From TrEMBL:
InterPro entries: ArgE/DapE_CS (IPR001261), Bact_exopeptidase_dim_dom (IPR036264), Peptidase_M20 (IPR002933), Peptidase_M20_dimer (IPR011650), Peptidase_M20A (IPR050072), Succinyl-DAP_deSuclase_DapE (IPR010174). Residues 168-266 form the Peptidase M20 dimerisation domain. Keywords: Hydrolase, Metal-binding, Zinc. Its EC number is 3.5.1.18. This is Succinyl-diaminopimelate desuccinylase. It is an enzyme of class 3 (hydrolase). One of its GO terms (molecular function) is succinyl-diaminopimelate desuccinylase activity. PANTHER family: ACETYLORNITHINE DEACETYLASE, N-ACETYL-L-CITRULLINE DEACETYLASE.
Length: 356
């Protein structure tokens, strides 16, 4: 039995509800992936490939450009909010905002636009709500990057119908100072590593973060201490101290450039990069991206957080976030989505991919 009937596939709201009512907490995406796969195969105009519980579908019409629409299939754990409930213009329940209303739009376009003006690829993937190593899109970008090939990507995460372009990168570094232990009664015999941290904090205090415009989007960077440590005992001059610094960097820097910048700021200190995730260019200078912004009403803003769009960036594909859900409701017990917003996003996407 299929819940994704032809009638359901034809209506983005019914489709949102149907997807939400298939339970798919992370690690349990087999059933929803089966349903989506069966529905796409029935359509006949798409080639599909499944890797685990991640499904890629594509048109192959020989168009000059290819656009990717992507959405994750999983949700966070149930919290007394399953299945969905419809109340007037609002659909309540787990996954309605994050992000089955968005994933439904990708599936709806796949089902109802057999001859798009660009070639389209669709990615429905698993394990987004847990550690990145299990993320279906992340795994595919490493093992089968050719399946994700596109000129531009739209990730249908909740943005409340606004185009949020690119994303900032993030890097964590540890700045360490070293000294020499001694009894604090004879401190002149030692060298205090904690005191040596002072210039690190001074540089952070004096740091003027850039505001950068990339492809018409303004990104505001930040360089901030997030942890600090050091000390041996109450009567010992410490021989080591450290500050963990988080750098949020604009998409005109890649990870190497971000690291070089941080090393320059802390020149003379021992700097170790502990964690890093790439930025993603908004790519709004590209015609397919500009056309999408126009179809979505002409407004856009920079994405300041980090999202899966950066997975596309590592493959050289510019990407934006765009979905009907309200990001403030993601992962909340009272998660919900407004039906008119689903319809508005559906109209924008359809106008974008349909031949005029
Ligand atoms: Zn999400």
């Amino acid at each position: 039995m299929t819940v994704l009937s032809e009638a359901v596939l034809a209506d983005p709201v019914a489709l949102t509800r149907a997807l939400c009512d298939i339970p798919s907490v992370s690690w349990n995406e087999a059933e929803i992936c089966d349903e989506v796969e069966a529905a796409l195969k029935r359509l006949g105009h798409l080639t599909t490939e499944r890797v685990g519980n991640t499904l890629i579908a594509r048109t192959d019409l020989g168009r000059g450009r290819r656009v990717m629409l992507a959405g994750h299939l999983d949700t966070v754990p149930v919290n007394d909010n399953f299945p969905t409930r419809l109340d007037g213009d609002v659909l309540w329940g787990l996954g309605t905002s994050d992000m089955k209303s968005g994933t439904a739009l990708a599936l709806w376009i796949a089902a109802t636009v057999p001859e798009p003006k660009f070639d389209l690829s669709f990615a429905f993937y698993d394990c987004e709500e847990i550690e990145a190593e299990h993320n279906g899109l992340n795994k595919l970008s490493k093992t089968r990057p050719e399946l994700l090939a596109a000129d531009f990507a739209i990730l249908l995460e909740p943005t409340y119908g606004l185009v949020e372009a690119g994303c900032q990168g993030t890097m964590r570094v540890r700045v360490t100072t070293s000294g020499k232990r001694a009894h604090s009664a004879r401190s002149w015999k030692g060298e205090n590593a904690i005191h040596k941290i002072a210039p690190v904090l001074e540089r952070l205090n004096a740091y003027e973060a850039r505001e950068v415009e990339v492809d018409g989007c303004t990104y505001r960077e930040g360089l901030n201490a997030v942890f600090i440590g050091g000390g041996v005992a109450g009567n010992v001059i410490p021989d080591e101290a450290w500050v963990d610094v988080n750098f949020r960097f604009a998409p005109d820097r890649d990870e190497a450039a971000a690291e070089a910048h941080v090393r320059e700021v802390f020149a003379g200190f021992d700097v170790h990069v502990s964690d890093t995730a790439p930025s993603c260019r908004p790519g709004l200078d590209r015609p397919e991206a500009a056309e999408f912004v126009a179809a979505a009403g002409g407004e856009f803003r920079a994405k300041l957080g980090w999202t899966d769009v950066a997975r596309f960036a590592t493959l050289g594909i510019p990407a934006v976030n765009f979905g009907p859900g309200d990001p403030n409701l993601a992962h909340k017990q009272d998660e919900r989505v407004e039906i008119p917003r689903i319809r508005a996003c559906a109209d924008a996407l359809r106008a974008y991919v349909e031949e005029q």
